[in-house]
Design goal:
Number of strands: 21
CATH architecture of the largest domain: 3-Layer(aba) Sandwich
CATH class of the largest domain: Alpha Beta
Protein name: Aldehyde dehydrogenase family protein
Radius of gyration: 23 Å
Helix content: 25-40%
Number of domains: 2
Structural class: alpha/beta
Family: Belongs to the aldehyde dehydrogenase family.
Largest sheet: 7 strands, mixed
Pfam families: Aldedh
InterPro entries: Ald_DH/histidinol_DH, Ald_DH_C, Ald_DH_CS_GLU, Ald_DH_N, Aldehyde_DH_dom
CATH topology of the largest domain: Aldehyde Dehydrogenase, Chain A, domain 1
Keywords: Oxidoreductase
Bound molecules: nicotinamide-adenine-dinucleotide
Distance between the termini: 60 Å
Length: about 500
Amino acid sequence: MTGTTDWAARAAAFRPATTLFVDGAERAAADGATFPTISPRDGAVVAEVAHAGRADVDLAVGAARRVFEEGTWSRAAPAVRKRVLLRFAELVRRDAEHLALAETLDVGKPIRESMNVDVATCADVLAWYGEAIDKRYDAIAPTGPGSLATITREPLGVVAAVVPWNYPLILTSWKIGPALAAGNSVILKPAEQSPLSALHLARLGAEAGLPDGVLQVLSGDGPGTGAALGLHDVVDKVAFTGSVGTGRAFQRYAGESNGKAVAVEAGGKSAQLVLADAPDLDAVADAVCWGIFYNAGQTCHAGSRLIVDRHVHEALLDRVLTRAKEFVVGDPLDPDTVLGAVVDGTQLARIEGYVDLARSEGAVLATGGGRPQPVPGGTYTEPTVLDGVDPASRVAQEEIFGPVLSVMVCDGPAHGVELANETRFGLAASVWTSDLTVAHRTAAALRAGTVWVNTYDAASVTTPFGGFGDSGGGRDRSLQALDAYSAPKTTWFAL
Ligand code: NAD
């Protein structure tokens, strides 16, 4: 749904919020620092945005703690929190075009995805957690007749949500939805590449009725703003999504400060395992391509490894190559575009570096590798398929975070599972087969937080999302995420 909007005209007139949102007010950084947010669509500066420093972090954490202690949100009746979150979701829908534009200009994703997927999911997730909060019951422990022990869930306090740039609104909603619903005060730190939707979201939260200090947004960098939050003694939890190395840094920050809880969701090298009896190779090729090319491959659970049984390798590869060529790179503001820009020049260089490396490691460049230019000055790369990839090589093992599919062959289900599990990551995997028993056995044997059978990337707020190993142990979505932002409390009554 992108309607009849003239997106280029809207982009030309776009005036985003650029100040921090602290304690219910718009603020410049205490030291006046700013940074430019640059659009990968055309390389132009979209806006100069406030850069939060240590003083701003202290101010925000202080406000977050104060309002938490006051209890206007943390101890508000669940029905009250629900009403505010439902209103918040409605305001996201009201401002869908503004938020979608912020997202597309910041990170270069196609406007129709920003509208139909990112903004829509953000609103739905906020509403889902709002709806959930007054339908959960606490418990009474079976301690026997001489006592009554209640187990209630308490919010944690001040939660810092630190998110990356690939799905700014979706990942933000996965954190702030359950954290706010549970009664916490939240400080959101968006990635430096994508601050604009977050800064607008803060204003919508206030308009919806969140008390001052309950949702604050600090735009800024990682080593400055992010680290100050991670090291802060008054922050109770960090909910992090991003790279493996930064996740480890947050765990170190916690150890060096107050031992705060840290939930990490990091990258992946997810396998799409296609067995010899896979049903309908056209459908498989379609899912394989969407699994790796969606969002220009900048997806933590991108299906970046195609492990295909030798018997169907050629037939599937033919179809994948045909389908890949249909993912034409275009202007992110064109509502027909399905493949937009990659987030910046650093990411583009990284992707191209991996394609060069693959060739030097002996892989065959079956399609792609080029640098199209639908909008001058932007950062774009073609959908790329590498065949004959050695499972032990770097392109088969390291996260590229671009539209690059590494194809390797296996001999039967057991060998396929062995190759699929040969990774430090464990975020997602798929298996394609017509045999129900093989499907069950293979799904159980794949070490991944999500396994799809005969599909890829099916998702719902009702199911947990997260991984094993280097993908991090945190889980977003579902009622389990609500539990992750609260702690059980026992109250023992002697009778
Ligand atoms: P990143 O780790 O560089 O940045 C993520 C966030 O951490 C940003 O807000 C950044 O400012 C902050 N940060 C960076 N360095 C920091 C430091 N030293 N101290 C404190 N904060 C710091 O990640 P990225 O490159 O922006 O994002 C891509 C990564 O995110 C990929 O590896 C991808 O797989 C992963 N990812 C994972 C999931 C998931 O749910 N598992 C979802 C999306 C993305």
